[in-house]
Amino acid sequence: MLTTQRKKAILDALARNGQVLAGELSTVFGVSEDTIRRDLRELAAEGLLQRVHGGALPASAALASFEQRQDIETVAKRRIARRAVELIAPGQTVIVDGGTTSALLVQELPADLHATIVTHSPSVATALAAHPRVEVILIGGRLYKHSIVAVGAAAMEGISRIHADLYFMGVTGVHPSAGLSTGDFEEAAIKRALAARAAETVVLASASKLNAASQFVIGDITLAQTIVVEKKTSAELTKPIEAAGVTVIRA
User: Fold this and answer.
1) What is the domain range of residue 44?
2) Where are the transmembrane segments (predicted)?
3) 45, 84, 227, 250: which one has the fewest Cβ atoms less than 10 Å from its Cβ?
4) What is the pTM assigned to this prediction?
5) Backbone phi, then psi, for 190, in 5-degree steps?
């Protein structure tokens, strides 16, 4: 079997099974594990999978720039955002993450909603500036341009002073065994810190993020109490999440 054929077969197995193991692939193709590891390295370099210990997982497709991601899955993200807004009760303190789905979420807030929104996203804060009844608290720090959010020591200090009812978390990967992940080390740390300051963490997950993984782990799947997905999401993708004790809401 040619290398290109073997790589295609690896990607087919990954799409079919949600993960591949180097040892099993070595046996199936009759080649050494070193050869399989080389294949996985090269496929990872092309952004086609995410290597993990012992094998690989599907790579998240949600790692493009903020501008590019604004045009991806927009209709689905808006449905998810609308459903997420229904979880907010008047008078609550709510943390809203950065990202394209969060940007849609704040657009869906009712004009008569009285609440406090805490965010480390300047764009989210700006979008709420004209809202008549929402108080906005903006956490500062170093700007991480990919998601247009504040990170670093100053952001951590601000986060440590908050007690919130809800945290709407944006991620690039949701996987039952690999957990919640994102593409930046500092951003992953910020998301963990925000989750620790909220009574409930809600992950907003469009299709490209499900059963996928990125380089940096935010936490286990159970770091979230609730995950909002598209209505048409396959039960095969959501059953392992629900089995872990996480509530899945369809939008």
Assistant:
1) 3-58
2) none
3) 45
4) 0.82
5) -65, -45
Other beta carbons less than 10 A from residue 178's beta carbon: 21
Same domain flag for 14 and 76: no
Residue ranges in the chain assigned as alpha helix (H)? 3-17, 22-29, 33-45, 66-69, 74-85, 100-107, 122-127, 153-159, 185-196, 235-243
Do 119 and 43 lie in a common domain?
no
Q: List, for residues 186-230, the tens digit of each pLDDT value.
A: 999 999 999 999 999 999 998 889 988 999 999 999 999 999 999
Span 70-88, pLDDT tens digits: 445 688 899 999 999 999 9
Task: Please give the structure tokens belonging to residue 48.
Answer: 């086609």
What band does 146 get if pLDDT is binned at 50, 70 and 90?
A: confident
CATH number at residue 202: 3.40.50.1360
Contact 222, 200 (CB under 8 A): no
DSSP codes of every residue in 181-201: EES-HHHHHHHHHHHHTEEEE
Decide if 59 contacts 212 (C-beta within 8 A): yes
Name the amino acid, one letter, at 22.
A
